[in-house]
Amino acid sequence: MSLNPPGSRTTKAQTNTPDWWLMVKKFAKHGTSIASFAPSSRFLSRKIVTGIDYDKAQCIVELGAGTGPVTKELLARAKPHTRVIVVELDPDFCTRLRSKFPAAEIVEGDACKLSELLLARGIPQVDHVISGLPLPSFPAPLRDGVIASAAKVLHAEGTFRQLSVMPWVYAHIYKSYFSDVRFKFVPMNLPPAGVYVCKGYAPKEEAQA
Ligand SMILES: C[S@@+](CC[C@H](N)C(=O)[O-])C[C@H]1O[C@@H](n2cnc3c(N)ncnc32)[C@H](O)[C@@H]1O
Question: pLDDT digit string (tens) for 69-113?
Fold first, then answer.
């Protein structure tokens, strides 16, 4: 899945524009693969990274970082021994992320290929996967692929954490992949939003490609 044509370049305007405007432009251009016209609030961004045992975590992955509101909170909490890998498909968002977080490992790539992307970096397992991907708007086989790829590398005790701006509406989707799904509501976001914290990959038949 590609958001920009091959060989497309990041323009000066794209590096100078505010985050919210970059997000609006990407939303207008790519619609459902961005699925949000504004970056997540700091309340939502903090919620998705809360509850992680940062002393224990060796590796945490973020998928679909956009302009980096969650990345910021994650990097602020991660301990020096924790490797943080940020995977983003859109090259302009990657440019933005690299300029904001020069020391971070920003990988321009497709979340569907997560296990391959990690293996290429010598990472067989991760403790948590934090997703800002618009999974409900992905075609089912693509969604299956992303979640299966994340589950393949996720530690048995690890969590798959998913942002959602449609509180509770998509719970059934995550319950079709994981045996333990909890929702944390975040009213202080426009629109009100929340976070699914999922454990125990156990896809039901209808969740498989
Ligand atoms: C709703 S935005 C979330 C941005 C950010 N996490 C936030 O909370 O503001 C979804 C992001 O997922 C990225 N994305 C969509 N499909 C992807 C894929 N297959 N692999 C990696 N990133 C993807 C989009 O480029 C976009 O940055």
Answer: 999 999 999 999 999 999 999 999 999 999 999 999 999 999 999
Euclidean distance between CA atoms 193 and 187, whole angstroms: 6
**pLDDT, greater one: 181 or 166:** 181
- Cα 58 to middle of ligand 1, angstroms: 23
The beta-strand segments (E) located in the chain are 59-63, 83-88, 105-108, 126-131, 154-164, 178-186, 193-201
How many angstroms separate the CA atoms of 151 and 84, rounded?
17
178-186/193-201 β-pairing? antiparallel
Nearest ligand 1 atom to the CA of 111 is: 20
H/E/C letters for each residue in 89-144?
Answer: CCHHHHHHHHHHCCCCEEEECCHHHHHHHHHCCCCCCEEEEEECCCHHHCCHHHHH
What angle separates helix 19-30 from helix 91-100, to the nearest 10 degrees? Answer: 170
Residue nearest to atom 4 of ligand 1 (CA): 66
